[in-house]
Amino acid sequence: MNRIEEAMHACRLCPRMCGADRLHGKIGYCGEKAAIVAARAALHRWEEPCISGTGGSGTVFLSGCTLRCVFCQNREIAAGHSGREISLDRLAEIFLELQEKGAHNINLVTPTHYSVCLAEALKKARTNGLTIPVIYNTSGYERPEILREMEPYIDIYMPDFKYIDTETAAKYSHAADYFEVAKAALAEMVHQQPQPIWDENGMLTKGVLVRHLVLPGHTGESIRILQYLHEIYGESIILSIMNQYTPLEGVELPREISRKLTRGEYKRVVNAACRMGITQAYIQEGETAKESFIPPFSGEGL
């Protein structure tokens, strides 16, 4: 039994450790079987400047998710309602095609539950000429043991750091253990990539970029998260403080997060970050809380 078969036979790839026999057609907590399912593979220009650059990030949106975020912007694919099954060989080809199109990097979105498969596809692609950096774009809800298996293949980790409070994590993502899990996962990521490295054009080639989405009515928690990250990691990570929270039409949400973030709320968090002495951070300006920023999951590039 090879590593993929072993992992999928009784799946323990994510912190849910559901044990589903995905290899033989059972569906894991992630909503997926063993086969890789993706919804889009294309140049993406809506990431941070050091990721998207001028040519775009070669982004592969994978279907399924190990969290259950009530406000998920990509719920169409996170819930497994959209996507196309692709083989390991085809995925390796896609990586090379994105590189040929001028992608600055390969950006694996929601990779957790496919990690062992992605490692094999990346190995094949590198054998055939893949040279650009690879990004592990994750919710932050990861097992350090699995991240260690990914170390030879990943240049940039781009995790979310969503919550510090157990109650918030349980209510909005059905993951009461989120903070403890994400804390351990981030420690492993920084261990692997201890300092950001940029090329001559200002593109990130190695490192850890941590994203935090500010939720309406939760600025206090956001400030505590930034304080934690700054105290523990300082300038060894890049921060991205995001204001693009978007309550999607037709999705029933808890009342306190059923609205957009106000400018005042976001300004409060950014000002707090400045007072902490955080200097290596991206902030968002203008109207980013729009559904138009969500790409079409049409199967492009697959």
TrEMBL record:
Any single Pfam family the record assigns to this protein: Radical_SAM
Binding site for [4Fe-4S] cluster: 65, 69, 72
Residues annotated as domain Radical SAM core: 61-221
Keyword Iron included in the entry's annotation: yes
Protein name: Radical SAM protein
A GO MF term: 4 iron, 4 sulfur cluster binding
Annotated cofactor note: Binds 1 [4Fe-4S] cluster. The cluster is coordinated with 3 cysteines and an exchangeable S-adenosyl-L-methionine.
Alphabetic keyword roster: 4Fe-4S, Iron, Iron-sulfur, Metal-binding, Oxidoreductase, S-adenosyl-L-methionine
Keyword Iron-sulfur in annotation: yes
Family named by the database record: Belongs to the organic radical-activating enzymes family.
First and last residue of the signal peptide: none
SUPFAM superfamilies in the record: Radical SAM enzymes (SSF102114)
Organism: Hominifimenecus microfluidus
Cofactor: [4Fe-4S] cluster
